[in-house]
Design goal:
The protein is mainly α and 412 residues long. It contains 18 helices and no strands. It folds into 2 domains: 186 residues, Up-down Bundle (Growth Hormone, Chain: A), CATH 1.20.1250.20; 191 residues, Growth Hormone, Chain: A.
């Protein structure tokens, strides 16, 4: 690994919480597809399977920011463990309900409970921010975490689907739940690197979403999430129409691999100038990269087009995290990061459902029009909100104590 990444882990405890975060994030890419595979195998009802997976995603979108807000108030250990126990109990009940053919409403209730899973990506990024705030290493750390996200999305679905089809239907979601338990309880056992909580008396009150800059980021990432959700669904249908449905996982893995490669390279670079310009360029490139998909005629061309399209994802996500640092008070940083993830989750649900409707009506190739339109919407929202992003919240200047901390870091 390049030297900046090696230097990143010189900080005590960084290897431990990063490893725990990797394990705890695997369910993000395993649980939804695992539920779809499990239910479709046990019942043959793809409509029910998709609805349950959407319930998990939407519940996580609703509950995630609230959990992260409590984390900012009371600390990771005090909040993550109870929230994870709720998610694990709900996951166990879901597996039992599916296995023993309990009523559908029980499946939906359990799926909603699984949505209480905490946003481990935000928790790990908050730990990096506490270690390297105000230094170039934070850019490298965010880049590394973006690569970890992509690695999870490359291997997570393959593992989940493979276990559920080759072993027993419940195997994929079961392993996802085990990863969650190990990751969260290992992470929360590491107290030395846990960010200091900010009780209500030390913060302005209200939600982080009051920040105008964060509102722009979240709105843009709803449209960006629609790109991701639509591309996943349409690619599976495209491969199925050509008689190679199994190849869809390889093609989508190349999409994530493109992002992974770009994230590694981006982390080695140092930039001058306003981050909001790089962010807007990244959103624009994501939108432009959807245009070649409208012209695809075979799977090899699609694989190349998606790999190229993936190159703009990680840099945009990394820059987004830097912008959250500027627009959200430090006492609400975890919540702010989770709101962006929530926007993505809502967008994925919207994009996948709209793409499915278009595929049924006009075929898979026409379905690639959905991510193209979503990309155009993302660019429009980004341009309209650019002035808000170019004015960081003045309260990010913080207290005298925070200024002293910055001076100490500069001297160090």
């Amino acid at each position: 690994m390049p030297s900046p990444y090696v230097a990143l882990f010189a900080a005590p405890g960084s290897k431990g919480f990063s490893a725990a975060g990797f394990i705890g994030r695997m369910p993000l890419s395993m649980m939804g597809i695992g539920v779809v595979t499990m239910i479709s195998q046990l019942t043959g009802r793809y409509g029910l399977a998709g609805a349950l997976s959407a319930t998990v995603a939407l519940a996580a979108a609703v509950l995630g920011p609230q959990i992260s807000r409590l984390v900012d108030l009371y600390g990771q250990r005090r909040v993550l463990r109870p929230a994870t126990l709720v998610a694990l109990t709900s996951a166990a009940a879901l597996l039992l309900a599916a296995h023993y053919r309990w009523p559908d409403w029980v499946l939906f209730v359990c799926s909603a409970g699984v949505g209480s899973v905490p946003s481990l990506g935000a928790m790990i990024r908050a730990r990096w921010a506490a270690l390297y705030r105000g230094t170039p290493q934070l850019h490298t750390a965010y880049s590394f975490e973006s690569v970890v996200d992509e690695v999870c999305f490359i291997f997570g679905p393959i593992i989940s689907i493979g276990l559920s089809t080759a072993w027993f239907p419940e195997a994929g979601p079961l392993l996802a739940a085990c990863f969650l338990a190990v990751g969260v309880f290992w992470l929360t056992a590491q107290r030395a690197t846990e960010p200091v909580p900010h009780p209500r008396g030390q913060r302005g009150g209200g939600t982080a979403l009051r920040s105008a800059g964060l509102q722009v980021l979240v709105a843009t990432f709803v449209a960006t999430g629609a790109i991701f959700g639509a591309v996943d669904v349409v690619t599976v249908a495209f491969a199925d129409e050509r008689g190679h449905k199994g190849a869809a996982s390889v093609v989508l893995a190349l999409y994530a691999a493109g992002s992974c490669v770009a994230g590694i390279v981006f982390g080695l670079m140092r930039f001058a100038g306003a981050p909001e310009r790089r962010w807007l360029l990244g959103v624009f490139m994501m939108a432009v990269s959807m245009i070649p998909l409208l012209l695809v005629g075979n799977l090899p061309f699609l694989a190349v087009a998606l790999f190229v399209a993936g190159l703009s994802i990680a840099p945009t996500m990394i820059t987004t995290m830097s912008l959250i640092e500027e627009h959200v008070p430090r006492a609400q940083l975890t919540e702010g990061m989770t709101w962006v993830s929530t926007g993505l989750a809502v967008g994925v649900a919207l994009g996948s459902s709209v793409a499915g409707w278009v595929i049924d009506a006009a075929g898979a190739r026409a379905g690639y029009g959905v991510p193209a339109v979503a990309g155009a919407v993302a660019v429009a929202v980004g341009f309209l909100g650019y002035r808000r992003l170019s004015r960081p919240a003045p309260r990010r200047g913080g207290t005298v104590e925070q200024h002293s901390e910055r001076q100490e870091r500069h001297v160090a």
